[in-house]
Amino acid sequence: MEGHFTTFNVLPDGHVRGFDLHVERLVYGQRSLFGRGLPDGLVDAMRELREPNTYRVSCFADSFNITARAIPPSEPISCAFYPLVRELPRVKHDDLAPQWEAQRAVAADDAILVTGDVVTEGTMFNVGFITPSGTLEWPVGELLLGTTQQLIEGVWPSVRKEIRVGEVEGYIGAIATNAARGVRLITQIDSALVTTPRGAEIAADIARAYEAI
């Protein structure tokens, strides 16, 4: 793999949710892949971004690149389980081919990755499961800890725990989270979970709490 990256939105008022978390991710990726600090000028260049867009900041051994695209929609999605452990899962690196293959392989909008019968993460997102009491439960394991997940944990009752495929039917809903799309409702995961109306209401409340950050 050549490098690593982070993706974030600059909002219409010019601020970035979790800016420091994105910098921490890049620092960790740079140390993990190259054993050195961030390229000179990177953080200043990130701070200077003002136009409302989704930005991808890519880091290499001695350089960086920033690209922009329109902020994507946050429509609901269906998911299916897919067996995959990403290489260096704690680094957001640019070897994305396995995730793209997982997306193509499932008969749903996107894939949720599993290791054996343990749920980890989505292809390009974290997954949070909604309990009947309204708490979010987030998988632990070999996965990328998302900036959006961490921000939501600060504004919504949350627990990190091991979650197995056979336990998913006990939840009333689920959400997909990442910095570009924010909070998306997961309507269904295979036949294991169909989000209930109450689950959808809680997901909408979580989205509003996140958008207020």
From TrEMBL:
GO molecular function: transaminase activity
Keywords: Aminotransferase, Transferase
The protein, known as: Aminotransferase class IV
Protein species of origin: Corynebacterium glucuronolyticum
